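User: Show me an example of a complex going from sequences to structure tokens.

Assistant: Sure. Here are the input components:
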Amino acid sequence: MSDTAIYRTQGFGQELGFGASPGLVIVDFVAGFADPEMFGGGNIADAIEATVALLAFARQQRWPIAMTRIVFAEDGSNGNLFTAKVPGLLALTEANPASRIVAQLAPLPGELVVDKRLPSAFFDTGLAAWLTQKEVDTTVIAGCTTSGCIRASVLDAMNCGFRPMVISDCVGDRAQAPHDANLFDMKEKYADVMTSHELYRALLRRDGRATV
Amino acid sequence: MSDTAIYRTQGFGQELGFGASPGLVIVDFVAGFADPEMFGGGNIADAIEATVALLAFARQQRWPIAMTRIVFAEDGSNGNLFTAKVPGLLALTEANPASRIVAQLAPLPGELVVDKRLPSAFFDTGLAAWLTQKEVDTTVIAGCTTSGCIRASVLDAMNCGFRPMVISDCVGDRAQAPHDANLFDMKEKYADVMTSHELYRALLRRDGRATV
Amino acid sequence: MSDTAIYRTQGFGQELGFGASPGLVIVDFVAGFADPEMFGGGNIADAIEATVALLAFARQQRWPIAMTRIVFAEDGSNGNLFTAKVPGLLALTEANPASRIVAQLAPLPGELVVDKRLPSAFFDTGLAAWLTQKEVDTTVIAGCTTSGCIRASVLDAMNCGFRPMVISDCVGDRAQAPHDANLFDMKEKYADVMTSHELYRALLRRDGRATV
Amino acid sequence: MSDTAIYRTQGFGQELGFGASPGLVIVDFVAGFADPEMFGGGNIADAIEATVALLAFARQQRWPIAMTRIVFAEDGSNGNLFTAKVPGLLALTEANPASRIVAQLAPLPGELVVDKRLPSAFFDTGLAAWLTQKEVDTTVIAGCTTSGCIRASVLDAMNCGFRPMVISDCVGDRAQAPHDANLFDMKEKYADVMTSHELYRALLRRDGRATV
């Protein structure tokens, strides 16, 4: 039996659908993850480009918007087990331009910038409370990497009760096989997965307007 | 460049090593996940058998031991987004024998049984505080499934500051490709991965005793 | 300068106001806290009686309703620092009738029963995610004790982004001075505090119906 | 019956005692809380002075040391329910000297500076994981205010499994009655409370050295 057939037989992969009130979460699209010489590569650059349109759409819809960065203290005092596994992350300090969100996705005033030191956009960051205060019930998720911080953020979005919607062309990874494997896991267990065009069509149809 | 080569170039996959004080966490080895007709299959039965020896070793070493189960309320009142994706999980109630830890791993008095409703052994369960009180700094992790509750538990063990050690022959999955893909991700980013025999050798060597 | 004057000068004690979507959280109104010979006394019995009407109101309004209990394992394996300070809490096990929610507030099917082992209704319980899934943004809080589990639950409601509304005649404490001191702290820093009749009037006025 | 007598009868207020490995947590001793014109007053200045010796002691003992500050974004984008209750807190931004730790307690390299936006030093900050990685099991707590961020931090220290030790002359509040009421609550339910001299004597006695 194929992997997918096993998951079908056991009843995995049901669709969550959208709630009433989406928000956009863009994970770690910073200079250091856009740079193949640092933590980037693979389809990350393509995902950043697709996210430019997604961000414009979210702003037009007046969704709450949050963007994450990885930022450690200059003296490394808040290093952790994640930096023990991946020591190069400690270079991502406030003073390092590699920590800056890429110019084409620069946040506007009032958009939340979440500084984090772990894979998840939610863990120990205050993002869940911020989304709750904004009455968000559905998190549209873009960013990188699919097999790391996206997977962790999607899991915690679900854990915290925010329906996770993974936008497949707006998430990227330095390597294709982990990208594909993690999209599979997330779709079967934690999230709905769709392209940005499927997202636009679904939401505009729901709101009774012409599709894009 | 191969996936592994990319990860080597970017500095992933360093070894955490053991701390001073390990504990054992066995995730979801319950009847319903041992049964291929329910949520089991693949190499889960083999992983359960290998964990019998691991549990005996942990008891001999007097490690704190915790075991998790998935348990929902009989009336489904605490269903969540996880059960929206995988509705069959709601059948795992206290009254259902499928929720019971398999007989060969039955907990002894004083071992912690963690009832959970999400993938992670840590999220909203109190496990982290219990391990802290027991002065555990390293979590040796067995259970199922590798691509689901093991991955989520390993991520949260790291998030919470407990070094995660994944025992590769003591974790199992209903499907081989997700099992392999998630061992790769965990080894590169979050955890040390080793066989149970490598674990025994490493710890007995450290303690100055003859190897097994 | 009086305490209150200091707080006024420094700008504390602003009003939060109600959000769009309230839920009711009843904390630890179980037999063992109704019994002055166990953990009860003071104004707790009066608070339980006032909460009977509040619960009827919440059900009529179709608010999501959650009730907490303190429940430890029969073998004490999940004891913690709270039980180290207050050892008698370990007697509150599933088998002990003292752990049962008092009869006049018994939950209906679909109402959430939260088993907890710490003061807060939120900490490590999954309540925040459940409220998020129910799209609750405001938590109306009753229960006991004001200086213990109410204070802790109100703090975490605020931390998690749910506006806390403390219903002053529906919260009780075994001793009056801590009751009063904690209502003061909560009103200045974390929550709106009002009587149940003020609550009914405020919400019915908002909904354009005759006041009670 | 007096409040204290009720608590004695019901078995509250047992002593936790020290664990093997203490750490020091100094909460919000920043310029804005040292200044009676801003958020200070009462016995906060005295508590800061007493904490100078405590910090020197902790450094001599080579304890892990963490200090918290309240810091909001310049554009207020991460404001929350706490700032809705106390709007003046939003002025505490990175650029505001009021956010700086007071000079006499300035952190040394390697000491953790925790930026927070809620009362607790732990909630959504990563402090618990940092303490776990440092193998701390006991948190010695100083700072301000006793009725606010100290109470919240002590509660979460207990929740997370770190024995909280409140140093009564090293915690301060803008108003005396809330200071006293919260020391009472913490001593009965969550923490051991002692003066700094009692702390020094207890630890030096334990370590077999002459008392101070």
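The lines above are the inputs; the final block is the predicted structure for all four components together. Chain C has a mean pLDDT of 96.
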